[in-house]
Specification:
single chain; alpha/beta; 3 domains; five-stranded antiparallel beta sheet
Length: 551
């Protein structure tokens, strides 16, 4: 009963925020100008504000003339001072934490997070949540199964916590929401052992009426489906007896925090055992109220969606919207429609082809063109100003006068031996088409450019199961990938036809390579819900780990 009341209360709050978004989406220039100037006034007396003459900024053009486009290196000195505990550096409001980005190598960046920034972020979340409830009313019949990462991984020299924004946003939720809408305890995600963490998550979830699965990474959602199958018998036995037999010991303090999920439930165990006997022990049957899976679905993430039907049947899948630790870029305004989050931050756009030009023109939300791709710049209440997040988004339409966006890929992840300019999006689309054409299944793939003995691309593959004829499988997949990439990229086709590029060379991973890579990255501090291994030219340390598993 209380859960339904909470959904009703959220519906009312969401209706108000959605109405405000609807109103401002008709005049995005005015809304964005007001948002920007409010931040400028609030932070005029900060070190950054004084360095960039905030007191003289009275318009968007003033702001663009006073503040250069920034990348992390250019704001890092300010971030380091704020992280050391100095006040009034980037924002008048002191950061209460720093979000760590989810890079898979090198030192991670610290993104300042203020209470005002969290409010900005939540405005978009409320509109998106309202529209999800509107489009998927079955969500009201249960709870959300979410996966997030540690809110605190450590502390800066100024004793300010740093960690994952996903975990922090969860902890910022009201207690009633955490108890009745997203009830998996935070402590579950503090379990050190990778397998035990997922086992415990599933054990708790089997005691709940799950109506949605909500997490960023689709590979995590596939992992949940696989682990449910792997641990089926153990999980059913635990449900029956009220026990927890995770692969490794779970600390007593965490066991106490989840004790209310562990009551013996023989009736539920019998239901689950019947599903297992019928070979139906999968998420869409285990949780009959499951109405929605929400995750990244664009660009490279789309590759993992092909595995969803075997675990989730025909449960609808919706994109989680575009965002990052640095800010929230879009809101859900309908199925497969994402509008710029104009009530959250201030945004600018630089045409993809102009980003390296000293005369690059930054456009406002109402100046972009449908069909064009842009680098997106964020200005936030957390202290990022004209920040180039290195993401490329494509304008695909309009919601009133506000652009509809789709994330494409990270900027700079382009490979070009001879002018073919292959992108990560293109190789992902080509690989998906390759699987459709060949009727094959892969757990993971990546494409690696190689210069020797002549320029070519290597296609590294982990099949769903070991092929009977390895050479035939590799040859078939390589040839079909070559054909599909030629369709996606006419310059690649031309270079192949002129023999300036040699044919792709396929290589196979040892079984379990991707799972092992995930475990290794998590062990080295990468939040497991945010692991993103590039499908084109992965970073050097990841490539080295993968190469060791090639047969």
């Amino acid at each position: 009963m209380l859960r339904k009341l909470l959904y009703s209360a959220f519906w009312m709050m969401g209706s108000r925020e959605t109405s405000a978004f609807e109103r401002e989406s008709r005049e995005p220039r005015h809304a964005q100008s007001e948002r920007l100037l409010s931040m400028i006034r609030e932070n005029a007396q900060t070190v950054f504000g004084k360095d960039h003459n905030f007191q003289s900024i009275n318009s968007i053009s003033d702001f663009q003339n006073s503040v250069p486009i920034n990348v992390y290196d250019s704001i890092q000195p300010y971030v380091e001072r704020a992280a050391a505990g100095e006040a009034n550096i980037l924002t008048a409001e002191q950061p209460f934490m720093f979000a760590t980005t989810s890079g898979t190598s090198g030192s991670r960046k610290l993104i300042p997070v203020t209470r005002s920034y969290v409010k900005e972020f939540r405005r978009a979340s409320v509109v998106s949540g309202y529209n999800l409830l509107k489009n998927f009313p079955g969500l009201r019949n249960g709870v959300s199964l979410s996966v997030f990462s540690r809110a605190e991984e450590g502390r800066t020299v100024g004793d300010i916590p740093y960690g994952a924004i996903s975990g922090r946003l969860y902890l910022e939720e009201p207690k009633l929401i955490r108890k009745y809408i997203s009830p998996i305890p935070y402590d579950v995600f503090l379990i050190e052992d990778y397998e035990s963490r997922y086992y415990t998550l599933l054990r708790c979830a089997l005691a709940l009426p799950v109506s949605s699965i909500y997490t960023l990474n689709p590979s995590t959602i596939v992992l949940l489906g696989r682990r449910l199958k792997t641990y089926a018998e153990m999980l059913i036995r635990d449900v029956e007896k009220g026990t927890l037999t995770a692969p490794q010991f779970v600390p007593q303090s965490i066991q106490q925090s989840i004790a209310h999920f562990m009551a013996p439930n023989p009736a539920r165990a019998r239901e689950l055992a019947a599903l297992l006997r019928e070979n139906q022990f999968r998420p869409d049957r285990v949780w009959p109220h499951l109405s929605l899976v929400c995750c990244w679905t664009r660009a490279a993430a789309a590759f993992y969606l092909k595995d969803f039907p075997q675990f989730y049947g025909d449960v609808p899948v919706c994109d989680i919207t575009y965002g990052a630790s640095e800010g929230r870029g879009t809101v859900c305004v309908g199925r497969d429609k994402q509008a710029l989050a104009i009530r959250s931050h201030f945004f600018e756009f630089v045409a993809e082809e102009d980003i390296d030009s000293p005369d690059a023109r930054a456009l406002c939300a109402d100046q972009v063109e449908v069909g064009k791709s842009y680098y997106i710049l964020f200005t936030t209440a957390g202290g990022l100003y004209r920040y180039n997040i290195n993401d490329i988004v494509k304008v695909v339409g309009w919601y009133n006068r506000t652009p509809l966006l789709e994330f494409q890929h990270k900027g700079g992840n382009i490979s070009s031996f001879t002018g073919e300019k292959v992108t990560e999006s293109q190789v992902t689309e080509a690989a998906s088409a390759m699987l459709s054409a060949t009727g094959s299944q892969l757990r993971f793939f990546t494409v690696v450019p190689e210069f020797e003995p002549e320029p070519h691309y290597q296609l590294w593959l982990e099949p769903e199961s070991a092929p009977e004829d390895r050479e035939s499988f590799v040859s078939k997949m390589s040839a079909e990938f070559d054909r599909q990439l030629s369709i996606k990229n006419i310059e690649y086709k031309a270079k192949r036809e002129s023999h300036r590029l040699a044919p792709p060379v396929g290589r196979l991973f040892e079984p379990g390579t991707y799972d092992e890579l995930r475990r290794t990255l998590v062990a080295h501090g990468v939040p497991d819900a945010q692991i993103k291994v590039s499908h084109l030219n992965p970073k050097a340390d990841v490539r080295q780990r993968l190469e060791a598993s090639l047969r």
